[in-house]
Amino acid sequence: MSQISVNLLERRNNRLLVEQIDLLRLSVAKVQQAHPFAIHAWVVLPDHLHCILSLPEGDSDFPLRWRLIKSHFSRALPVNERRSQTRLRHGERGIWQRHYWEHLIRDEQDYRHHIDYVHINPLKHGHVTRVADWPYSTFHRYVASGVYPQDWCLRDPLIFRDSNNSKCAGI
After folding, report:
1. Which domain does 80 fall in, by range?
2. Are residues 96 and 38 part of one domain?
3. Which of 47, 55, 118, 141 is 20 to 30 A distant from 134 in Cα terms?
């Protein structure tokens, strides 16, 4: 199981991922159907996303899945982004950063910390004042199943409080 962060190439004032959320969802679903993976947590922000995924036993090919998700998403968009000479030479789009960040989840505590990290991101980046107000997140699924209260980290967003009034796990 890994926590993965993926960024758009041009992040400044870029809202592409939330403006094209349905296309992103379709791209993920299409790849998930062909190359299965489980989604444990996911948040989409305007210019990047974070998720925690696991693959079937014996499969560790996250790069294949991300290449396909990025490719499906990019091919469905009109070619109107700025592209460097290098990207033009290699026939690449200028939508995504080439790399992504991956962290292998070590244990249950690390898992809980990264679940919190994924879900707190819209608040951390100032997109909302309440985690519950961000629509593009599995946070709502966790609230429905009783893992988080609806007002998680609400009392003091600078301290990031959790339901026990202690700091949100490791944030």
Report:
1. 2-105
2. yes
3. 55
